[in-house]
Amino acid sequence: MDPNNVGRSFRESPWRYSQFVIVGLILAMLVRWLADADWLVSLAIGTVGGIGYFLLEKKRGVI
Predict the structure, then answer these.
(1) Element (H or E) spanning 44, and its range?
(2) Is residue 10 one of the residues assigned to a domain?
(3) What predicted TM-score, i.e. pTM, was given to this entire model?
(4) Is residue 4 part of a domain?
(5) Which of 5, 26, 47, 57 is the most exposed place for a label (fewest CB within 10 A)?
(6) Which domain holds residue 40?
């Protein structure tokens, strides 16, 4: 596939995996803000959430 192809979809782009990182960061920020947890705990929960979302999408066959 041509990397300069403007018409390609998000599923075919190398940025498709960034959604899991973004979900993990949003979850970490929410845990930090709502539960007033330490950053390390918040990032661990965000990491688990991002990996869980990745596994869910993989099970669905999207990835």
Answers:
(1) helix 39-60
(2) no
(3) 0.75
(4) no
(5) 5
(6) 17-60
Q: What is the mean pLDDT of the chain?
A: 86
Virtual CA dihedral for 37, 40, 44, 49, nearest 10 degrees? 50
Q: How many domains does the chain contain in total? A: 1
Sign of the Cα pseudo-torsion (30, 33, 34, 36, in order): positive
Rg of the chain over Cα atoms, rounded to whole angstroms, equals: 15
Burial of 13-52, coded b for 16+ CB within 10 Å and e otherwise, reads: eeeeeeebeebbbebbeebbeeeeeeeeebbebbbebbee
Within a domain: residue 1? no
Strand segments (E) across 1-63: none
